[in-house]
Design brief:
The chain has 33 residues and is mostly helical. The chain has one domain (1-33). The chain has one helix spanning 2-32. The radius of gyration is 14 Å and the shape is rod-shaped. It starts with a helix and ends with a helix. The model has no long low-confidence stretch (mean pLDDT 91).
């Protein structure tokens, strides 16, 4: 289904974005020390 695949790709993008955000925050924390 087109709608399902669209939701899946959106979820995948969200996961990637969340992971990048998490890595970025960890970088900032390590820089602060």
């Amino acid at each position: 289904g087109g709608r399902f695949s669209l939701a899946t790709s959106a979820l995948q993008e969200f996961k990637v974005l969340t992971a990048e955000l998490e890595a970025e925050s960890q970088n900032i924390c390590s820089l602060g020390r």
